[in-house]
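wait is this the right file?? whatever heres the structure
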């Protein structure tokens, strides 16, 4: 049975939910899957895996430092395996150009060119933020295209789960086709 690692970093929890969802889809395809928050666990040895998916979210224009450090530290292992990266951001909802720019910067920072890339809309976790951050995020949401939610008394989730499912299914199919 092929073994897959889904390694991610999250601030408010949406990337973790997406990582768990991807893992559940991969398991329905008969894969043995581990999920790891790279902020919390020691570096899992990639040598144990047949494929790896890495996920990270964008805050203040950048991918999370923990996921950048993880990829930098494991670049050689990642390059030798079937791999994919998913980026979670507000921009991915209706501003693909911005969302792609974040990923381009991530590739430049880490030197890793994942085999496959996906951009997933994240959430607006207003109720998890302090007063100042709530105002900042609401202003960014107002300025982005797509009529994003601005009621700071509630959270919004924009992840399109069908797209996440397709990404996981494509990865499972590629892994199945890859020479072992
Ligand atoms: C403080 C803060 C800053 C953010 N900055 C950006 C940003 O610069 N660009 C963007 O596209 N999304 C931004 N977002 C949206 C996040 O990427 C989105 O909330 C995502 O779902 C967070 O994922 P996580 O919960 O796994 O950390 C920001 C969100 C927060 C809370």
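ok assuming it is, sequence goes like this
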């Amino acid at each position: 049975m092929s073994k897959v690692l889904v390694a991610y970093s999250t601030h408010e929890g949406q990337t973790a939910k997406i990582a768990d969802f991807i893992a559940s889809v991969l398991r329905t395809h008969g894969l043995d899957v581990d999920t790891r928050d790279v902020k919390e666990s020691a570096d899992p040895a990639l040598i144990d895996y047949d494929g790896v998916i890495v996920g990270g979210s964008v805050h203040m224009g950048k991918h999370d430092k923990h996921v950048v450090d993880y990829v930098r530290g494991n670049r050689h292992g990642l390059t030798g395996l079937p791999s994919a990266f998913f980026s979670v951001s507000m921009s991915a909802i209706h501003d693909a150009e911005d969302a792609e720019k974040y990923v381009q910067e991530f590739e430049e920072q880490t030197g890793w060119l994942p085999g496959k890339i996906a951009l997933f809309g994240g959430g607006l976790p207003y109720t998890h933020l302090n007063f100042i951050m709530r105002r900042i995020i609401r202003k960014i949401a107002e300025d982005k295209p797509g009529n994003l939610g601005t009621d700071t008394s509630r959270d919004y989730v924009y992840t399109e789960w069908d797209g996440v499912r397709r990404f996981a299914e494509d990865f499972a199919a590629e892994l199945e086709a890859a020479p072992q």
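The chain has seven helices and eight strands. so i think its the right one actually
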